[in-house]
Specification:
The structure holds 2 protein chains of 2 kinds. Chain A is mainly β. Chain A has strands at 4-6, 10-13, 19-21, 23-25, 31-38, 42-49, 56-57, 64-70, 73-78, 87-94, 102-103, 107-111. Chain B contains no helices and 12 strands. The chains are: A mainly beta, B mainly beta.
Chain lengths: 112, 110
């Protein structure tokens, strides 16, 4: 089974800090995605990547950036964390769209 | 732009009763459609998917869904709900980048 691993289950950061959320997948998938999940809003796409060093903006990229230096790793960066970025962050990967996504367990980030 | 609407935020059913969760989508072409389930504190697990062929698709855990192009719908069904089905269910549409609905939380009464 494909495994998507998110490095932290829970994180607490201070306002203004630079935050790194890491995601690693072990099945050589081309595509990787970052979503945030908020009650009543479902999952919203932040960024995605089709290949190493490639990135595309999703629906809510403001305040975020990403890095994909290796195929298996996709990092989400909060340049200057704010309280409205308190959320559950989910990483996913896929080989191709028709297969669906495999999700990590999520990182619950609290910005204080 | 692609979008998904799940009209029901929360549904309660009795164990053993049938279940239908609604999903409507907007997409420019024939979509890939998915249903995912999320148990508390967990990531999302794929239940089933549709992208062509038979409009009634079978998934894991006894779930099925029917694609109706004329209604832009992809409703999820289960004939007899088990207590372990209590979770949040998400409908999703898309190709290379997927969009999700807001989710429907399912509560199962004993």
């Amino acid at each position: 089974d494909v495994k998507v691993t998110q490095s932290s289950r829970y994180l607490v950061k201070r306002t203004g800090e630079k935050v790194f959320l890491e995601c690693v997948q072990d099945m050589d998938h081309e595509n990787m995605f970052w979503y945030r999940q908020d009650p009543g809003l479902g999952l919203r796409l932040i960024y995605f990547s089709y290949d190493v060093k490639m990135k595309e903006k999703g629906d809510i990229p403001e305040g975020y950036s990403v890095s994909r230096e290796k195929k298996e790793r996709f990092s989400l960066i909060l340049e200057s964390a704010s309280t409205n970025q308190t959320s559950m962050y989910l990483c996913a990967s896929s080989l191709r769209a028709s297969y669906g996504y495999t999700f990590g367990s999520g990182t619950r980030l609290t910005v204080v | 732009a692609q979008s998904v609407t799940q009209p029901d935020i929360h549904i309660t059913v009795s164990e053993g009763a049938s279940l239908e969760l609604r999903c409507n989508y907007s997409y420019g072409a024939t979509p890939y459609l998915f249903w995912y389930v999320q148990s508390p504190g967990q990531g999302l697990q794929l239940l089933l998917k549709y992208f062509s062929g038979d409009t009634l698709v079978q998934g894991i855990k006894g779930f099925e869904a029917e694609f109706k192009r004329s209604q832009s719908s992809f409703n999820l069904r289960k004939p007899s709900v088990h207590w372990s089905d209590a979770a949040e269910y998400f409908c999703a549409v898309g190709a290379d980048d997927m969009r999700f609905g807001a989710g429907t939380r399912l509560t199962v009464k004993p």
